[in-house]
Amino acid sequence: MLGNLGPMAHVGMQRLLSEDGIEIVGEQQQTAGIAPQVERLRPDIIVLDLDQPESKQLSERVRMACPQTKVVLWARTENLMEVIDPGATRPRWVVSGVPQDLLAELSTVQVIRAEE
């Protein structure tokens, strides 16, 4: 599922994932609608914008709504990700300048698109 990414990041992420054959089950850019949609769709993973100030709190709401969802907080600079695995008590950091590292995080799960 794609969350509160900016418009260009959103389009780029859609393209990157579709080129790698990863299906998107949900998209929700409105912060208030993300946790309820995660609870309803139960995606394997959600990608949020690490640069948005509300994303840290949002990631906690997502984890409460669906504890089995992996949360990837992705920096627009594309060289930093904070990954919160299901059941983890702490995030882990991935520092890389290549999209393949993001795809590696996403390739073990299924991400899906639904109408907003």
Layout of secondary structure:
Elements: H1 7-19, H2 31-41, E1 45-49, H3 55-65, E2 70-74, E3 80-84, E4 92-95, H4 99-106
Parallel strand pairs: 1-2
Antiparallel strand pairs: 2-3, 3-4
Helix pairs in contact: 2-3
Total count of strands: 4
Q: Could you spell the SSE succession in H and E letters?
A: HHEHEEEH
Shape: globular
Class from secondary-structure proportions: alpha+beta
How far apart, in Å, are the first and last alpha carbons?
Answer: 11 Å
Query: What ranges have pLDDT less than 50 throughout 5 or more consecutive residues?
Result: 110-116
Biggest sheet statistics: 4 strands, mixed
As a percent range, the share of strand residues is 15-25%
Mean pLDDT, as a whole number? 82
The radius of gyration computed from the alpha-carbon positions, rounded to a whole number of angstroms, is: 12 Å
Main sheet: strand order? 1-2-3-4
- Helix segment count? 4
Helix content: 25-40%
